[in-house]
Design brief:
The chain is α+β, with helices and mostly antiparallel strands and 380 residues long. It is built from 10 helices and 10 strands. The structure holds flavin-adenine dinucleotide (FAD).
């Protein structure tokens, strides 16, 4: 599994796997069942070094490469999708844009806390603007030296917990040549007129926080602007390229965990006087799972290495996200098949994996949108 990884990357995998088995696995099912966002667990992950993994040590981060971060997300997802989602969304979507586009002042104000004990959301999606992010309706109106923000955001991960500090939001700030101008702002949760509400009763990632954000005449300064006026769409879409690597990691980890469960079960479960893995119909399903997981890992790690080498990686990230989420769906479906009726009981983790994988083909670009992105890259 660890072909081509450095000693440090292998050690990181072992460390996160041990943590996930010891700290995450025992609480994952309970938190899922009861829709608990686990603050204690999140702070323990911070102590392990999982917040601000790729941020420079100058801002309180851990200065790791992208592949190391992706391995950590993969290992968490091997045990629990919700926990992996908290870490993935925070590092890629929450911290990423501030780290990449923030001024020195913004980085010093936010990154040390976000690498330690606070979370940050990424507010692109709105009730009427999902795949079509240019359909944003949240408006930033310039009045004197302030910006007045009105509108709302939907489905924003990590935005509405007791340790959420704020969110990055895309707004329409005017019009240029008859087209909307998009500008991105950093908004802290205690800003007057800004409210955050948790979105509950999800099918999956039930222990991950999802929030609805409402802006009612919120006043922001130029100091809240991330990047330049009119650069908003670029910042949000570039952030999604990186975010797709971590959704890929969640698909890979989820598939790996489901495969391991199905394999172990197939060796123990006996029917017709022998373990079910001895039936070719079952062993071939497991062989296909193992093969697809290896292919997914190769594609994802290649995309991460390209990013680490500062090469363009948008096409590979889209392919990795598309393929890893598809593999997670296929592996979870077949893993339930291998486990028969037991795979459908909440007493087994498999049932949770089967639900958790479903978001991966929707969040951060649906599979349909990713195929559009990839088809543009290949010149269609
Ligand atoms: C748990 C959860 C967490 C999330 N976290 C965040 C977050 O942190 N930040 C954030 O900004 N968003 C977040 N999202 C939102 C997520 O990114 C969107 O759900 C996703 O982008 C799809 O948008 P939509 O749900 O509005 O679907 P729609 O865009 O309405 O799509 C519905 C269907 O139409 C298809 N479709 C749409 N346009 C086209 C087209 N041009 N061609 C072909 N098919 C098309 C889609 O593929 C899909 O099948 C989250 C969502 C969930 C469920």
């Amino acid at each position: 599994m660890d072909f081509g990884l450095t000693k440090e990357q292998q050690e990181l995998r072992a460390k996160v796997r041990e943590f996930a088995e010891r700290e995450v696995k025992p609480v994952a099912s309970y938190n899922d069942e009861n829709e608990i966002f686990d603050v204690d667990l999140t702070l323990k992950m911070s102590k392990l070094g999982l917040l601000g993994m790729c941020v420079s040590e100058d801002y309180g981060g851990h200065g790791l490469d992208v592949l190391s971060y992706i391995i950590a997300v993969e290992e968490l997802a091997r045990v629990d999708g919700s926990t992996a989602a908290t870490i993935a969304a925070h590092n890629s979507l929450g911290i990423g844009p501030i780290n990449d586009y923030g001024t020195e002042e913004q980085k010093m104000r936010y990154l040390p806390r976000l690498c330690n004990d606070r979370l940050w959301g990424f507010g692109l999606t709105e009730p009427t603007a999902g795949s079509d992010s240019r359909g944003t309706k949240t408006f930033a109106n310039p009045v004197d030296d302030k910006w007045i923000i009105n509108g709302s955001k939907m489905f924003i991960t990590n935005s509405a917990t007791s340790i959420s500090m704020g969110s990055t939001i895309q707004t329409i700030s005017g019009e240029v040549n008859g087209k909307p101008e998009f500008t991105t702002f950093l908004i802290e949760n205690d800003t007057e007129g800004f409210t955050q509400k948790p979105v509950n009763r999800k099918m999956m990632w039930r222990a991950s926080n999802t929030g609805e954000l409402i802006f009612n005449n919120v006043q922001l300064d130029n100091a809240n602007m991330l990047g330049a006026r009119g650069q908003g769409s670029h910042i949000m879409l570039a952030t999604l390229d990186s975010g797709r690597l971590s959704i890929g990691a969640m698909g890979l980890g989820c598939a790996q965990g489901a495969f391991e469960m199905a394999l172990a079960y197939s060796k123990e479960r006996e029917q017709f006087g022998k373990p079910i893995c001895k039936f070719q119909a079952v062993s071939f399903m497991l062989a296909d799972m193992a093969t697809k997981i290896e292919a997914a890992r190769g594609l994802l790690y290649k995309a991460c290495r390209m990013k680490d080498l500062h090469l363009p990686f948008g096409k590979e990230a889209a392919m990795a996200k598309l393929y890893c989420s598809q593999v997670a769906a296929e592996v979870c479906d077949n893993a339930v098949q291998v486990m028969g009726g037991h795979g459908l009981l909440k007493d087994f983790d498999m049932e949770r994996f089967y639900r958790d994988q479903r978001i991966l083909q929707i969040g951060e670009g649906t599979s349909e949108i990713l195929r559009i992105v990839i088809s543009r890259y290949i010149g269609c």
